């Protein structure tokens, strides 16, 4: 996390530079020297305010997570509380459209996923993100299903989001938001049909 006193104008500049360098050379080769050159700042500024590469990567992921969360919250705020299926798709869309689907952001996410297995702070951020997604989904699903079913279906949708997102990120054509929406809507419709017959 950046130290108090970090000029607010510098944070977006450094986050953007971090994503650009990861996009170009990958996470492991994304050195402080390359990032500082991209941002047009000295390496000392990054080391002083972020404590090095790990701190800057953490701040980059925090910014991506903030934008991700804001996108979903804004989308949900525009929909009626009773439009449960639309609200679920709005949560899904938050993972596949706009900022989250930009190439540099997607590559940074992918690097973050792999890095979080070995970095406790990044692993904690990943868990926060996962819990937030499941919480958003379960709130909407509990209006359509019992609590146990909502839990299972929320995990199913989260797994579909992760899988579709991963495949899309590794695909040269990128993420297909329409296809993602179709697949998850189809899964949700099947769950609604299945549980309505019970």
UniProtKB/TrEMBL annotation:
Record has Membrane as a keyword: no
Entry-linked Pfam families: TetR_C_6, TetR_N
One GO biological process term: negative regulation of DNA-templated transcription
DNA-binding region, residue intervals: 31-50
Keyword DNA-binding: yes
Gene3D superfamilies named in the record: Tetracycline Repressor, domain 2
Record keywords: DNA-binding, Repressor, Transcription, Transcription regulation
Functional pathway: Amine and polyamine biosynthesis; betaine biosynthesis via choline pathway [regulation]
Annotated HTH tetR-type domain residues: 8-68
A single MF term (Gene Ontology): DNA-binding transcription factor activity
Functional description taken from the UniProt entry: Repressor involved in choline regulation of the bet genes. Repressor involved in the biosynthesis of the osmoprotectant glycine betaine. It represses transcription of the choline transporter BetT and the genes of BetAB involved in the synthesis of glycine betaine.
Designated name of the protein: HTH-type transcriptional regulator BetI
């Amino acid at each position: 996390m950046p130290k108090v006193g970090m000029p607010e104008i510098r944070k977006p500049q450094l986050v953007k530079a971090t994503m650009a360098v990861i996009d170009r050379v990958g996470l492991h080769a994304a050195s402080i020297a390359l990032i500082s050159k991209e941002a047009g700042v000295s390496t000392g500024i990054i080391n002083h305010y972020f404590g090095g590469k790990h701190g800057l990567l953490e701040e980059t992921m925090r910014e991506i997570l903030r934008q991700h969360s804001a996108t979903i919250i804004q989308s949900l705020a525009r929909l009626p509380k009773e439009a449960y299926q639309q609200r679920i798709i709005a949560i899904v869309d938050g993972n596949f459209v706009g900022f989250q689907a930009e190439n540099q952001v997607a590559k940074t996410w992918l690097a973050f996923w792999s890095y979080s297995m070995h970095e406790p702070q990044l692993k904690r951020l990943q868990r926060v993100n996962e819990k937030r997604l499941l919480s958003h989904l379960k709130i909407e699903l509990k209006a359509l299903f019992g609590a146990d079913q909502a839990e299972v279906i929320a995990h199913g949708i989260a797994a579909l989001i992760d899988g579709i997102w991963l495949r899309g990120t590794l695909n040269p054509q990128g993420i297909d938001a329409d296809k993602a929406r179709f697949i998850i809507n189809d899964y949700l419709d099947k769950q609604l049909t299945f549980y309505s017959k019970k």
